[in-house]
Amino acid sequence: MNVIKTYVVNMDKDTGKRKQIEAQLVLHPELDYQIWKAVEGRKLTVEQQSELISPKFKERYGKGASLPAAGCSLSHLGIYRDMIEKELSYALILEDDAILSSDLKLESLVKLLDTEKPVAILLTPDFWYKKRGLVVGIDERHNVYELYDGYMTSGYMINLAFAKLIAPKLLPIHLKADEWKIFISYGIKLFGIVPHVVSFPDGIGEIGMAGDTPKTFLQKIRSRMISVYISLCFVKKYMGGHRKSRKNWR
Fold it and tell me: pLDDT category, 248, cuts 50, 70, 90?
């Protein structure tokens, strides 16, 4: 198997995370990795924020439209542009808190990227698919499904066609990096592997903390009611053959 170009998104200040991910990467000689200097959103000047971040970002996400979230989108956009400039056929993109399994199943996944159609493959959990959406069985345990929604950018693969389609649509930043459902509406094919081969730590991380504020009693009640409603919707979807990939190891 040929080595796979791998981008590892990491902020300069996060030396601990960089050491942790590099300790894992040395166990994967098939990955030709590069530490990609992430954009630290909080360090953007007022002028840079005005130039790089659309007002639509705040309109769409409200309190979730944090500077770290915008920095994350800018970091991934930079990778897409680098792929285009270097004409890379495909690449693996990891964030520095990714937890890698011993076998990433990349040889089978690369075959799905060998197309002129824009394709992304999520290696992490937390996405939606249908049982009848099976694309390929990799082995007795692992299957690849076509997805209709998903979250997270801790670990995923894309091809050049994806980068060329999505990169021009992102600036100024008006979407978070993991708006996979919207990317599908732009014309990409989104796949995911079940069970996942890349995981991530528990917790909300810097992006989540930036938009996190204490909830009032009424907000907590509302959140609980929404949670119950979502659970009922999930049962209905499950009966219709819908499935959600969940994190089962870290």
Answer: confident
pLDDT digits (tens, 9 = 90+) for 89-127: 999 999 999 999 999 999 999 999 999 999 999 999 999
Distance (Å, whole) CA 72 – CA 51: 16
Of 200, 95, 199, 191, the residue nearest 138 (C-alpha): 191
Phi-psi region of 218 (alpha: psi -120 to 50; beta: other; left: phi over 0): alpha
Q: What is the dihedral of CA 11, 160, 5, 7, to 10 degrees?
A: 10
Q: Which among 4, 60, 16, 91 has a CA at the least distance from the CA of 211?
A: 60
Q: Which residue has the tokens 């990433």?
A: 104
Q: How far apart are CA 7 and CA 93, in angstroms?
A: 5
Q: 237 burial class (0-12, 13-18, 19+ CB within 10 angstroms)?
A: middle
Is the pLDDT at 212 greater than 70, yes or no? no
For 185, left (φ over 0), alpha (ψ -120 to 50), or beta? Answer: alpha
Helix (H), strand (E), coil (C) string for 15-40? HHHHHHHHHHHCCCCCEEEEEEECCC
| % pLDDT > 70, the chain | 85
Confidence (pLDDT) at 91: 98
The yes-or-no verdict on residue 22 having pLDDT over 90 is yes
Most distant CA pair in the chain, distance: 55
> Strand, helix or coil at 121?
strand
